[in-house]
Amino acid sequence: MTHKEKWLVFAPTGLLVIGLGTCLVQWAADKKRNGHSTKEWVAAGTAALVVFNAGISLFGRGVVEKVKYDLHEKPAELDYNNVARL
Description:
Elements: H1 3-33, H2 38-72
Helix pairs in contact: 1-2
C-alpha cells in the first residue's frame, strides 16, 4: 500500500471515528442527565472517549502518511534563488 493510499484511508476513517466518539460522549452525558446509574454512564463515557481518541489516532496517522507522501512520492521543488553559487 502506498503512502497516498494509506493517507486516503486513514484520514477519512479517523474523521468518521472522531464523529462517532463525539456522538457517544453526548449519549453518555444524556445517560447521566437522565439519572442512570453511575456505573452505567461512566462505562458509556469511558467507551466514548476510547472511540474518540482512536479517531484522533487514526487521523494523526493519516497526517503522517500525507507528509510521507509529500516527501517521498512528489518531486522535490528546488528554489533556485536560495541556492548558493559556487
